[in-house]
Design brief:
By secondary structure, the chain is of the alpha+beta class. The protein has one helix spanning 2-34, and strands at residues 47-49, 54-56, 62-74, 81-90, 95-98, 112-123, 128-141, 144-157. The protein folds into two domains: 1-38; 47-157, Immunoglobulin-like (Sandwich), CATH 2.60.40.
């Protein structure tokens, strides 16, 4: 009986040792991926992460030269006003773009709007880019305006 317990203990020690090692390797891999170390090459996909209800649409992201183009979609469920987009850090840092709202000053629920940020770092085709955007907008709740802020990161490869 004692011999079976020792085999079980040895197996558990083996699994625990290698389990922790695999976990550490996975965490390091995820951190390196988030930092963009495995960044793009030809065929890399542009991504937008961290945004909430008002967010860039990934297929529309295009970085060429010193210009970043993308479309944002209003997923709030109601109209938004006073929207602005600021490139807080990264390749387009320090740039603020007043959002081009429709003629009535409201971006309706589900609407999509094209945005352009100029003055970014010049990149050649195939170089990776990353910039953190802050989108500020107002909604109306119970007749009162409420300001919302969403921050996220756009990453990808310049065209």
């Amino acid at each position: 009986m004692e011999r079976m317990e020792r085999k079980g203990q040895g197996a558990m020690e083996y699994l625990m040792t290698y389990g922790w090692a695999i976990l550490v390797v996975m965490i390091v891999g995820v951190v390196l991926w988030q930092l963009g170390i495995f960044g793009g090459g030809p065929g890399a996909v542009n991504t937008a992460s961290g945004f909430g209800k008002v967010k860039p649409m990934e297929p529309s992201i295009k970085y060429s030269g010193p210009t970043l183009e993308f479309s944002i979609m209003n997923g709030v469920g109601q109209g938004i006003t006073n929207a602005s987009i600021t490139a807080a850090t990264g390749d387009c840092s320090g740039t603020t773009v007043p959002h081009s709202l429709s003629s009535d000053g409201v971006m309706g629920a589900g609407e999509v709007s094209a945005e352009t940020i100029t003055g970014c770092t010049s990149k050649t085709s195939g170089q990776s880019f990353s910039t953190t955007l802050t989108i500020v907008y107002d909604t109306t709740i119970a007749g009162s305006p409420v300001t919302h802020t969403e921050t996220g990161t756009i990453r990808g490869v310049a065209e």
